[in-house]
Automatic annotation (TrEMBL), chains A, B, C, D:
Record's protein name: Decarboxylating 6-phosphogluconate dehydrogenase
Gene3D superfamilies noted in UniProt: N-(1-d-carboxylethyl)-l-norvaline Dehydrogenase, domain 2, NAD(P)-binding Rossmann-like Domain
Domain 6-phosphogluconate dehydrogenase C-terminal: 185-324
GO BP, sorted A to Z: D-gluconate metabolic process; pentose-phosphate shunt
Superkingdom to which the source organism belongs: Bacteria
Organism: Pseudomonas morbosilactucae
Family membership: Belongs to the 6-phosphogluconate dehydrogenase family.
PANTHER family in the cross-refs: 6-PHOSPHOGLUCONATE DEHYDROGENASE
Involved pathway(s): Carbohydrate degradation; pentose phosphate pathway
Gene Ontology molecular function terms on file: NADP binding; phosphogluconate dehydrogenase (decarboxylating) activity
Gene: gnd
Statement: the UniProt record of this protein carries the keyword rRNA-binding: no
Keywords: Gluconate utilization, Oxidoreductase
Length: 326, 326, 326, 326
């Protein structure tokens, strides 16, 4: 099958590669011409602009946009919508807010264009492991594009079957689902990331206690000289917390147990915030997901105005003067 | 009435003063001889050691220990217990863990000594406003000492009566209660401080949003140039959040709206932690009280090992490199 | 001065009354004709529709809309904008989302109409105590309407002056502020309510521990038979947590210490959620404000799907079967 | 090698079985004689009391206690300590509080007895998958017993090696570690369970949002008819949240997507609470771990006293009457 791909960064480039490895044809574009020529050298049809990309595809065309959410994606889809013709489909594989998907799908439908949103998980490992995809949009169109999704997905692999699973639709077991109408793909991916934040923070807090327990600041009779790399390693085998994130933790701690290579300033993308918004809209209590997000906010500041206000109040009622004692 | 007082710091010294202002006699001791001579100059009987303190009191003696919780208080009470005689009473006015009170009361009872724990709120303002006291111990003994408690307490003042209040015991309205047996005074005070942490953190977070909303880092069309000192001031009048902590906030912001005088490294005493322990013992969910405590822990660190682990995992699965962007 | 008031419920009715008590003239409307006639009997000019209200006011007219946020307010302002003329001002005294204020102010300005948003705190007590007001909009227009705001506000009262306060603008000390341009009034009120949620939850958690400590489910040697009404009462005097919310708590516990009259299903209005959204927009960590909101969400459910999933996982890895044991 | 095992429940019985499968000899005891005879039929030497168990082992004896933490374990170890002789070792494989381990190790050492604490993860799956073990105690003694630990552990399996891992000690890769001195094994296991709570709660909250998004209570245009079983399934393949807990979630949702078989009353064992205590001792902020625990507390109550107090305050300041509206 043929797919146009716009945006050849870490994700888009490997998506093109994995499709080509599986016998599909790609027409690729990026503002960075080096990215285009690299992929052209690997067999893709590189093009110099959107017009050429559209021209290089047979109708009904499918164009995968793999760009940062927000303006870059929005502008590109707007531009594409001027170039494509009725029956063509735009696939947004990025991290778009699901309400933007719903809006776009409606707007593009007026021009006879189709819109599919794909929440794509897999990061830098997707080329090798395959991409886990959560797809929103028209069911028939998703089926029409199935060869592409099947090629990108991890497939059954050697993962044990889920006990009691009886389902007509085996796509989930091959690593992708049709979640529902436009927006639902990114909605499910958004929640995925929300959970991811929570799991990461659970590990972060637990390892923080372990590391602190080994701290030389503790009196010797309260200290355990724990080997955090070994702990991560052993939990990978037979423990309840075994997980891919733990595998990555073990990787990181094997080479840098003190994590001196990191400052601890942790970014967050939109999904964590949108997850909290969705929870609030639906009145679902999410203390863990929200505190995981807030821990990231806090990690990026040295001290907060709020902390200073606490100090000011303590001075006010008790004459407490700040000390540097931990 | 006559009271021995050990520990003449911010709290103990003013307790002596307020008692003397109300016509009571005090025999006072502190390791710091300057503190003793200052109070002696104000009318107290200053003494040089515990023996002299005990000798200066008529039986049945009452000795108020106003020292930091933990070893200073524990050691002093142990020493006192060797010097006092059956029928005497030791009053711990500090921030002792209530389980230590229970243990001590039992142990002192074996020697015929009485023990009373007093959770004392009022900080540096107590001399003027009076001390709010939560008292644990034998009911009769608490009654016997009532003249002292009544003198230390704020009294009715001009605070409006609570609607529908019908109670035989009017001590609560005069600012002190007999909470129950030994330990209950400090238990109630401990919860008071837990709530205090939560209220303070609520203000801290709210004012942090207000201050950040006025930040020059925000695009101009998203910014409000808010006057936080005026906001604290206006809320003191007729708003739902009016409170003494808000009064103190208004004080602080009136003189230093940016709070540049504070680093934001916020200490915590034992009560916040013990409150969480009590909640866990009783299976009571306390997300706000615990997060208030954790915010203080966090305020005293520049970055945590946990934060670094988050960065390491993000690099592991997505190749995300830390940036300093907030 | 003359003011039109639309919406004569708990808030709007008393606003009219307090203005009339201070010598102002009101022209009032409500869909509920009984509300109108009640106020007419107290001296207001009651009218039957918006047209009559506008006709009853001299230009430049000022109309205070005191309706539920969302559609009721939105529709009324839209209708008013058709009836008013350039130079008139619409005041939204409800709990509108501040971004709606910004939008409306822009849109009304195109017609030459002015828009002022007033965050109003004071609840059922406002008639007597006065209303604490946070006002957004054009500074000159806010000044022009000052006689109205001054009448509604609590005034200096007998509240002690804030130490070190030096400010040209004494309105804050009289209970109202001009916070900034359109939207800023409701923004400040929104944060006020966010803080209010946090303070309330701090009290809720603390009293929950106190009450549980007195529970007959606890072994006798771990129990304190605490009097929660007395505890609330005593904290009103000289303690750090003294506050209006504590006064209300003391009121409630004086008449119903077990709170049997309440089911514990706690509603939330928009401000709590919007506060979290604002915090997320500004990357401010707000664990206490958010957990206070989530506690309310949780209070309205008997059990959550999430809780069931926890049980399912526990059964999955450990064979743990649910029991009813607390 | 030879091992005595006391406690033949879900864990102890399978530990005996896995050891026998690997050629070791077991002498087994349980108060429930049926458990003993069942294992005897599978090749263990069943005994009727502790004396017989000790008599059935050659010195230096090793006895594994696999009982509920607290009194059952404590009393058994006390009894054993009377029967064993210098050089023998007691292994506590349960979920004991690590400070109890430290105390016991000291006390037993006075009698020449050794003590090893083993945090054991693996639940009902351990027989098949092997047990992940975190071991505290004397290094030499742990080495002496290595054949037993090696047999119980999962072994290398087909789990990919951790990148960059260079370690002399390959036990971690075979599923067990010597964490340090007495108590450290249970300390590490305790943190493991703390993390487990956090990860579980992250999934619980995420799936709660997904399920609620599919709720018929939502207006149709805000609803997605999501298939939660498919979502869990697809995330098992290539997504960042893939984990054993997700596998179990997929199992549970495959057979009961609405989770109607569960009430959602979620128990907690000591480790979650002790993790918070450890964090507080070390001043480590743990919002996610603590909120996970509190969610469990909350799951076991229909409404809290705290919730009722919120309602009472809302009625107090705003006249808000509780409604059942969600």
């Amino acid at each position: 099958m043929q797919l146009g791909i716009i945006g050849l960064g870490r994700m888009g480039g490997n998506i093109a590669r994995r499709l080509m490895l599986n016998g599909h044809e790609t027409v690729v574009f990026d503002r960075n011409v080096d990215f285009v020529s690299t992929l052209a050298a690997e067999g893709a049809q590189g093009v110099a602009d959107l017009q050429a990309l559209v021209a290089g595809l047979q109708a009904p065309r499918a164009v995968w946009v793999m760009l940062p959410a927000g303006a870059p994606t929005e502008d590109t889809i707007e531009a594409l919508s001027q170039l494509l013709e009725a029956g063509d489909v735009i696939i947004d594989g990025g991290n778009t807010y699901y309400k933007d998907d719903i809006r776009r799908a409606r707007s593009l439908a007026e021009k006879g264009l189709k819109y599919i949103d794909v929440g794509t998980s897999g990061g830098v490992w997707g080329l090798e492991r395959g991409y886990c995809m959560m797809i929103g949009g028209d069911a028939d169109e998703v089926l029409r594009l199935d060869p592409l999704f099947a090629a990108l997905a991890p497939g059954y692999g050697d993962i044990p079957r889920t006990r009691d699973r009886v389902a007509e639709d085996d796509r989930a077991e091959r690593g992708y689902i049709h979640a529902g109408p436009a927006g639902s793909g990114h909605f499910v991916k958004m929640i995925h990331n929300g959970i991811e934040y929570g799991m990461m923070q659970a590990f972060a807090e637990g390892f923080d206690i372990l590391k602190t327990k080994a701290s030389e600041n503790l009196p010797e009779d309260q200290r355990f000289d724990l080997n955090v790399a070994d702990i991560a390693e052993v939990w990978r085998r037979g423990s309840v917390v075994s997980s891919w994130l733990l595998d990555l933790t073990a990787d990181a701690l094997a080479s840098d147990p003190k994590l001196d290579g990191y400052s601890g300033s942790v970014a967050d993308s939109g999904e964590g915030r949108w997850t909290i918004e969705a929870a609030m809209e639906q009145s679902v209590p999410v203390p863990v997901l929200s505190n995981s997000l807030f821990a990231r906010f806090r990690s990026r500041q040295q001290s907060t105005y709020g902390d200073k206000l606490l100090s000011a109040m303590r001075f006010g009622f008790g004459g407490h003067v700040e000390t540097s004692k931990k």
